[in-house]
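Quick one before lunch.
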Amino acid sequence: MFNLLKKKLSNFVDKLSKKAKAPKQEKLEQVEQAPKQISKQVAQVQEPRASAERKYKKEIIPVEKPLLEKREIKPELKAPSKIKAVFRKEITLKESDIADMLFELELSLLEADVNESTAKHFCEEIKKRLLADKIPAKDIESFVKKRIKEILRELMQTEQMDLISMIKSSEKPFKILFLGPNGAGKTTTIAKLTVLLREQGLSSIWAASDTFRAASIEQLEEHAKRLNVRLVKHNYGADPAAVAFDAISAAKNSNIDVVMIDTAGRQETNRNLIEELKKIARVADPDLKIFVGEAFAGKNLVEQAKQFDDAIGIDAFIITKLDTDAKGGTMLSLLHELKKPVVFIGTGQAYKDLQPFNIDEILERII
Ligand SMILES: Nc1nc2c(ncn2[C@@H]2O[C@H](COP(=O)(O)OP(=O)(O)O)[C@@H](O)[C@H]2O)c(=O)[nH]1
Ligand SMILES: [Mg+2]
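Model of the magnesium ion complex:
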């Protein structure tokens, strides 16, 4: 009886709170959820393999915290160092004091998707520098932790890139070519970046230069409709470079600030794709070539980014899907091996989910 009453009451409260929701709020939510819905619709029409891939990716459930616990990273002082620490203000560490700690550090880097060669290099460098450090005897643990982060930050340092001032100070139109594997988030990122630039008073036009993948043009068209952005498109199978060329001409004629060129990717890089992208780059002569990759793609992504860089040249990265359980170590490998700035990170499927990159937040997830 009591349970029945409780259930009725909760249904009633539910109904009330639904009614009370302001219509404006609902509209806002609809717009914010748009990329998610569009991707859903697109997935339904895409070829079976692609939608199977998509389904697999959707099953990666976003979590608040990383799934793996952080490993304990602290030096284990052996007897001689311990004795020294009692009598001196500063001590130097011995290799045996930090061997276990470096092992744990290497494991946590690997678990966070940092690739093997980068993880090894980081640990070697940290070892070299820690052994040379004079460490305050009272504060060994916190000093070492701080120092490790400092060294990592330094090893991954790239030049800063302020995309907005770069666009504002360049000749119009500013042309951005988006590159990267299939499903990495290029199309969604274009929509997100358009919203972000619009807030800065910058207008955009899109080139639907992914003429390869089923439903890619419709996906971009849906976003264009919702965001009221001009889109230049040809048919499937058309020359992607010609689409880019037309979008640039349209931007010049209409005094539009930015041209964003969406391109096709493949899971595996192949010659045709590289040749196609090279041609787009030749014809469009972009001011910026952004490689879009997923945070959990790991080693493959670094290899693919290197191939793209060799063939076409990459200026910057946008790393997506940091809202999933990915710790973001892929980014450390990319930064270290390719030395290009990360201009933004993707943190969800809504238009607002594009944020500036902060290396400390990523390091905080890992160590
Ligand atoms: N969770 C999450 N999903 C994203 C993010 N960026 C893109 N996606 C999703 O990833 C899927 C593929 O994106 P899409 O833009 O079509 O990739 P493209 O093939 O590189 O153009 C879509 O379902 C997007 O909604 C992100 O930052 N977080
Ligand atoms: Mg796409």
